[in-house]
Amino acid sequence: MHKACILPRLAFNSIKKSAPSYLPYIFATSFAVSVFFIFSSIVSNPMIQNMPHAGYLSMLMQIGKVLLGLVLIPFCFYTNSFLMKRRRREIGLYSLLGLEKCHIGFIIAAETVMVYLASVILGIVTALVFSRLIFLLLLNITKLPIDVRFTADPSCYIGTAAFFGSVFLLNLLINLIQISKTNPVELFRSARHGEKQPKRLWPSALLGAAALGGGYYLAVNFKLDSYFLLTIFGAILLVLIGTYCLFASGMIALLRLLKKNRNFYYNKKNFVTVSGMLYRMRKNAASLSNICIFSTMVIITLVCTVSLFKGLDNIADYSYPFDVDIRFVNGQFTQREALQEEILAQAQTQNVAVSDLIGFEYMSMRLTNRGDAFVPAEDTDGYGHSYTVRVLRLSDYNRIENVQESLDDGELLFFSTGANSGYQELSLAGKTYKVKKELESLCFETKEPKAPMESYYLVVPDEKEQAYLYDTMNRTEDQWVYTVRFNLSGKQENQEQFLANISQGTAQMPGFSWFDSRIEGEQEDAAILGGLLFLGIFFGIIFMVCLIMIMYYKQLSEGFEDKTNFDVMQQVGMSQPEVKSAIRRQILTVFFLPLLMALLHTVIAIGPIETLLNTLNLFNRRLVIFSAVGVSAMFAAVYSLSYHMTAKAYYRIVHR
Questions:
Q1: CB 212 within 8 A of CB 244
Q2: Pairing of strands 425-428, 455-460
Q3: What are the pLDDT digits (tens) for 522-552?
Q4: pTM of the model as a whole
Q5: Residue of 188, 203, 377, 553 with fewest CB within 10 Å of its CB?
Q6: Is the Cα torsion angle 564, 570, 574, 580 positive or negative in sign?
Q7: How many Cβ atoms are within 10 Å of 622's Cβ, its own excluded?
């Protein structure tokens, strides 16, 4: 029979006979194709662009698609490397039986094409079956209209096929290059070769401990300042280096110390476990560190997204002390009474109730500290070095707060939206003011000591003092503001219609500058944070698939390598139950070390996570901790289930 017929048949039979290795690989790549296709379809859906607040979702999905590609490419390379390592003995056998490297290359190319076609077809079919359900889930999470028709643009099919075609082609080129540089004997033996033990064990272990300690130090002392991005990247980099070094060298160093303890090591249970782990740690450092890193990514991603989504009400409570906030340039707006009458009339028409209606003037300044004095901020004053300072009159403050405060010339009341400042005096515009009282609350502003960006309110005696500060320290007319704020109650649809009418009417008034409402803000936040939750869930699932695949291939490859070792143990006197116990203790210890390390990483990351969530106006430490505990427990359960599922392949091989 001609080689053109034999070689493709060999390729097909090779896939068939290596089903335990190929089927999980095809499943993983098909899953990757499905997710990528669904993301592409959502991004290209023309109707989603026209929905209110969907712009945020579209932007997030486009970012998610790029990040998805960046995650899937190394994952496909990684699983391909495991697959090829398992099959090198088979490929070496082909060479010993007389096939030339070009023929072997043809077989591998044929296998790659077959797997590619199976993955793309299965992935796209799966995506088409579940895409509408997933799309409706996305719209439901983001609280967007769900009566949107889901369509897949032809470019999605082409783009998905081209993207994964490029990935499979790169994998094929890597495989062919590796085969071309090795001889048949090396290929035949390489399946049993593991990674070499680190040459500089203790320096590497100490480097890992120092790097991990440095990363933890940066995380524990994390603050929002001008260098916070560098701090984050530095902490992540140090933790990555520390994790790898500790798995590569630190664990081996610890096991060597245990081995030197004769009373501990020469125990029937400990002898096999320590020896097996020493051998396993030497070979699996990269895989175990990757499992740890992927686990940490899953947990932290879900903790952040779940905390934000569950904290929507907390975010809204902080961001919107009043349901509606309308602002005008004070010098241009002359229709104060007409505006209030229009608000009340529209409320009656739309059957909603307006309460806590207030209106007042304030003058806004952007100031920074220069020594003991506040002066106008420059463009060069960076993050955390300038403050929004608003000045209002005592008469407005007393009316709004329903109090009877009094101020003498040169005195003021001070309020900070963040932590109390403790100022006794303030130097403004060349004049020193005495702080008569630092206020603990304002009804129209929210106070939060953890807020990363704080603003100040100054209550001065009269309009003359307010005008003095405006003339001395301000630069633009639109910084003298008249604002109207009020709360709403009634049916949601009635409130939305009321807001639409008021927004349209006030936009036509002279001096209009700002209209904001809690309902509008909550809808935008739901679209953004719901999209983040959707991405978090999807990326969490993707990372879990990566973990399961890594665990499965490690169990598979180690099963074939350890079978001979455990057969020898039984031949020298170990009973079957003792062998099973040794196997169980060894594998449990090895594969649950990454989980324990990931949970430790997560505990250290709680502080930075909480601080970063503060920038999104979420100030609920209890919610973050509960989210971390819940996500960690759920992940540990899924991880354990995944371990038991993949470990079955190992036990079947070892006991066969």
A1: no
A2: unpaired
A3: 887 777 777 777 777 777 777 777 777 777 7
A4: 0.74
A5: 203
A6: positive
A7: 7
Place of tokens 């999209």: 531
Distance between CA 433 and CA 418 in Å, rounded? 21
Tokens of 34: 């499905």
> Which residues pair with residue 455 across a beta bridge?
388
Candidates 134, 36, 17; CA nearest to 76 is 36
Tell which residue, 20, 28, 13, has the closest CA to residue 549: 28
pLDDT 10s digits, 623-645? 999 999 999 999 898 888 877 77
What the block records as the tokens of 586 is 């060894």
Highest mean pLDDT pick, 151-155, 364-368, 477-481: 364-368
Write the single-letter amino acid at 621: R
Q: Which has the closest alpha carbon to 318: 619, 85, 595, 637?
A: 619
Angle, nearest 10°, between helix axes 228-245 and 201-220?
150
Pairing of strands 425-428, 373-376: parallel
| Three-state DSSP state, 320 | coil
Contacts of 70 (CB under 8 A, 6+ apart): none
| 356 three-state secondary structure | strand
The pLDDT, as a whole number, for residue 1 is: 45
For the CA atoms of 313, 318, 324, 328, what is the dihedral angle to 10 degrees?
-150
Name the 3-class secondary structure at 605. helix
Task: Name 485's bridge partners.
Answer: 325, 358
With the C-alpha atoms ordered 108, 111, 117, 123, is the resulting torsion angle positive or negative? negative
- 576-614 and 228-245 helices cross at what angle (nearest 10)? 170
Kindly tell me the burial class for residue 187, based on how many C-beta atoms sit within 10 Å of its own C-beta (0-12, 13-18, 19 or more): buried
Tokens of 342: 């229009």
pLDDT band of 195, cuts 50, 70, 90: very low
Q: What is the CA radius of gyration of the chain?
A: 33
Amino acid of residue 476: T
- Rounded Cα distance between 380 and 373, Å, is 18
| Alpha-carbon torsion angle 423, 428, 432, 437, nearest 10 | -40
Token duo for residue 248: 């590569």
Torsion angle of C-alpha atoms 428, 434, 435, 437, degrees rounded to 10: -150
Q: 494: Cβ–Cβ under 8 A, 6 or more apart, which residues?
A: 350, 351, 352
